[in-house]
Amino acid sequence: MAQCKQTAQEFIQNTFNPHVAVLCSPDAEVLCQKNNLTFVELVQPFCHLTTEAHIRDPNNVPHCIRHLKISMLDMTAQAPQQAIARKMMSDAVANAQPQLVEGGRGNVISIGNYDLQLSASTPWFEAYRDVFLQVLPPSDHEFLNHCVGCVFVVSSGHSDPITGFNNLAGQQYQQQTQFPNKMPRWLAPNLLKYYVLLHDVTEGEDAKADAVYQSMKSTYGASGCHLLHINSRSIKVADSMKTDSNLPDPWSQFLTKPVDISNSKKRQKARYYIAWEGADYDVSIGNGTDDGVAFPGKVSEGTLESSSLNDSLLVESASEALEAASSGSGADSDMFDHPLAMDHSTNSINHVEDRLSPDDSVTMETNHTGNNTKVQTTPDKKVRGHGMCLTTSDHDRLRIFIHEFSVRALIPWAEMSMRFLNEQLTSRKGIPRSIFSVTKKWFGGNKATEKAAATNQNTTVVYSQEAPELQMRRLADLAFLFQMYDFAYQTYHTAKRDFNNDHAWLHTAGALEMASLSVFMQGPVSSQKYPSHYMESAITTYLQSCKNPLYAARATLVSTEALKSKGMYNEAALQFIKLTSEDSDLRSALLLEQAAHCYINMETPKVRKYSFHMILAGHRYSKAAQRKHALRAYSQALQVYKGKNWSLAEDHINFTLGRQSFNLKQLENATAAFKHLLTENSKQIASQQGAFLREYLFVYKQLLSQEAGEYGHNTRPLPELPLPVLDSNSTKVLLGARPQPSQAPDKVATSGVWFDHKESNHPRWQKLEEALVAAAVGGLPNTFRPTLQCYTNRTDNKYSPVGFVGEPIIVEVYLVNPLKVMLVLTEVTLLWSFLPSLPGQDKAQLITNEVSSTSVKNTLANEIIQTQVIDEIIMDANSKLTTQITLTPHQTGELRIVEISYNLGGVLIEGNGPKPNMSNTIFVRGKQKLEVQGPRLNITKEDKANKMYGPDRRLDLVIQQEMPLLQVSFCNFPRTLLCGEVHAVMLQFTNVGSSPLHKLKVASTCPEFFTLGCHGQLPKFPCVYQSAMDVGVSDSECMCNSISKDSVNVTRVVDIDLPSGTLQPKSTISIPAWIRGNDIGGIHEIHFMFYYEPVQQLPNISHRLLRHTAVVNTLESLSVRAIAHRGNNTSSHPNGHRGSCVVMCELENLSQIQSQRAYVKEIQINQVSCASEEWTIQYLNSQHVKSEIQIGSRETMQLCLKAVRSSTNLDTIMGKESIVFSDVPFDTQQICSAMTPCADFFFRSKCSIKPLDPEAEVPVPPSKRKTSEFTDLNCAIQVGFTLVILWKACVVNEDGEVQIRVGQHHVTLEKIDNIFTSYPYVLIPTEQPAVRFVMKDREAEASTPDSEVTTQLVDLNFNHRSEVKHNFSNGRLCQVPVTLLLQNCSKVTLDVLVDTSQTPDRLSSKSNEASMYDHAGEYHHNSSFNWVGQTITQLRLEAEQQAAVQLSACFSKPGIYNLNRVAVFVTYSRDSNKMVLQRHSSPSVVVIGEVS
Description:
Largest sheet: 7 strands, mixed
Number of helices: 33
Radius of gyration: 58 Å
Structural class: alpha+beta
Number of strands: 61
Distance between the termini: 139 Å
Shape: elongated
Strand content: 25-35%
Helix content: 25-40%
């Protein structure tokens, strides 16, 4: 994780090393140029000592020097200008990019919930650090970068080498004394001078070289000179050599590419903004583009007002800075100067004056690795390898030269210089030193002779070169450079106190910095803890007091390495962050990135801090024109924020990644980044989302154009688009055309199947299909599979849908616009692959309709599968919609729907107008895959343990040959019906297919709703009922008709008779039908399913279906309530039949007069019919005049009828079950109730077909529940006939039009003394007792018949004179004979007890019997009438037997008396204790008159 190549000790040691100047004669440089190197570059790879050296400090303590590095500098080289230095650092960072191998999984670490792929190293930071330290100018407050000596180099071919050495030494002395501020700076006046005689082995004279070397030793001493042999290989041999694999090139890692600023051609490439809101492109103009793609040069995110525009947000590259400066544009003066930009003032371009040669080459003096390098770049310069004239022996001579120079000259000189400085400082620490200290303390301390105190604006004191404080600093720096760290720390610590007392803050900061490093470099042997606070104080002083960010940066670079080596990553990160500023974006970016790595390397990694500082680093990289590093930094941060609900931060990162990738012309990466901004969880505002969308479309279009240019048109598949969101699993497939409404106003087409139909009706449709298939084949096959026409994610899609040639296939796609901006989709179509089934071919060729991005139509594919193209779909913000696309196959085979393609564009709404502006809309053509997922499996243990999904083949269709296709229309079908209204309709059946069909059937969820007619002659359409006149019979003949039950078979499935047994293609037939409104008002759905089979059977298709859902609104019309009472039968029936019943009917018009709504104004009762096996009805009216019965709105009428058991039913007599229809007409025309449709709806109302929906089953009331155990007893109160009330209503429509409608209601009377209604019985659920889990022993209670039955087993009738005259003057008592007629109404033998006493409850002690006796009309009070004679009579009645009991009543005075004061007890068992009092509430009145 961002480990450096060097350890902290190695880095600090290489940063602070002895610097030695080099001054070469021209002839020596010529010898070196044979190797394409200068002398400094020649010796640089060998400037490390490979052996240990020893040195003594001023206290004569020996020290060991390890891995000493010497920096050779060209004395004639000049320090690079500020712009060149920035360019060097920028290039060093730009050229150091992450290696490709770092993308492997080896760099992935897991921290908590994060899996981060981190960089193993940061070579760009190390490269920047090296260049920064190399170009850092030396300062007067320290001597670490000052040269300790100078090496003079003269070749042996010089005419007078000794004179040449003297001239070079004089040149150096002149520069040191006359130009002390000119580079390089010197550590001390008595510096080390070393003389090197350079000898060319192949061309030079060895004797002359040896003679000159001997003279040099006698002149400069043996330790001050060296003879160096080079170029053991001639130039000709070197040029003839192609490569020498045995001779490596050690100079390649030390030589850098020259800085060339001549390529900065003037271009009109606009700078770009880095902001947060929106995005607009300004495409580059002019000839500055690199290729044909017009990349935007200016990108503006959002609305940037001039008042709020910060200069720090504006960025331009180094080349653009040069252009702006050279053009002198006034507009560019407001731009923020790039940290790598050159200073283009007239006083700061001296480094490039007269550098342009006639051949347009550029010559510059640069300092790359501390070397003096004159680089001349020409267009046609031949580049040769480095060191080609050097052999391995020459390499060894160079190493020996560096070793001899270090050990024999440099280290002894350093030892001597430190001893001299120490003695000089010691001699000055006497009495005058203390006097000066006291004087400085009292009076401010102004050393007139030794130092000139001058305080500048940074409060820094300027010392003279001979000041003791500087001498002490010089001594400490020498000790540090030669690895005497303990002595150096003591010296720095002493100098620090003096500098601090003098308020010399720059010197104080330098002393603190080096004192801290001295302790660190001592390592474990140090007795002191690393003083990190020293370094903190030094950095703070550099920044705040001295305003010197460069040396603060150097201190930070070395300090953080020390802190990281000690594991103090948090402190190191704080120091990195402290150095970030606005003066250098590149340095701030690098330091922020290092701070991020410190946070991730902590013992407890701080992942979010890592990512946050990586974002800051990426931003500063972007401002520094380091786009690749900005892209990398943001990519590293995205790993933390991605998928963690940091949506705004993730959007910012993705947007920046897209921008940087686009600027780097990585269009594919830019498209992927912008794609992540278009998600449904985006929390951006609408304008921001619109900007993201336009960015994405623009970049994607550029990418497609680029790929089209590379790969050519019609070759690359369509790209995948992120918008709109496609819910593939909600895709629906419908087999068949969309139901179209009929053009005729009086015709209703079948509703068929559509996507929005209720899924709750699917079980009903399946039940209807099962009933139809069972009726067609005689039972439900084991291989039966329900037919599906609409395939969704809720249906069973294990089997592929089967389509037919010529029949459309409609696919509904569910689209979601997650953004707050409008989306526009154009030319929307489906992409499919088709495998035709051609006879005679083993393997067919796969056909697809996908074309390139420039076209939509595919003529050849459209002839096989005709595909609909939707011109335009507009999706509002945050909207969801479904779109239907139709496919029509024209060939058999296997069809697979794979994708949906469209052109995507975003639209902005201008102003408040709803009309979108399409003028500036960018459209990109792409696609999305349609991938459906099957249901989750949860059967086996493996399914439950793993996420296993079943197959879903709804998009894999099988296309078969043409089939018959049925269309059904309902003519004259009403939208509104009255409750019970009967309406005539006409069904039209048309075969629009290409083959015949037969076995046409229909089934319905409500069989009582319609009938096709099956009894007698059918009425002529549009008539409803048939009168006696219509059928050609008299009223008397139509008065009582019978229908055999064998001919009545009401089922859910109805066969439709075809004229010739088949329905040929393009043929139409019409069949009349009648419908009846539901008895309950409201909106009702009635489902019809039509079944038919093709004449030519296919292997897997046995039948086809057509669905229709009729929605009928029923309005309240007539309510009928009826009750039957036993008649007063006083005559004996010879055949033993029971008597008549009186039927009371209550008729109510429920409709209410309402304005602007339809209502029933008046209902007229046309006829009342009775349908029963043994009952007929008669009109009960003494005048025998049947007047019209009319019921107004909200009126009620009572109608009294008499029901008589019929003895004329011949079918019943002959043992056949039949239904007798008896009519009581109230109109001039009598309706034949035994014919269609009256009889049909009667039978359908009586049918007991189980409902398809178990929840819709109406509970049976207790009175209708049959108990087979007491059937013979229950028949005592049963009557069993149905009243059919035929009516005619006058209806006023909404527009005031009056219509006449007819209908019928049915009331079935099952028991006497019970009220029955024409509307269904609704059982109110009773509250069940709480469940108890305590077991109780309960005796099994024997089942008993209902008390309602046991109290009415015997019918009582009194036969007596209605009026009796008696002379009470002659006789005090009047005796009247009474005959009590007892009729056994049950089919069991009964024991009857008749009690005429005053205590009728003496045989029963049950309270319920007493209450029944009270209910029977017995009143416990004295009266003037008594029964005389036998008070108790007991007899037995056989089944349906009638018997008479003679009684006598005695009256004491005249009056009106009720003789119904007889208690009759009955038992159906032999136990007399179980006798039940019979209920008979009808009075029997006698009038006793007085004869005067």
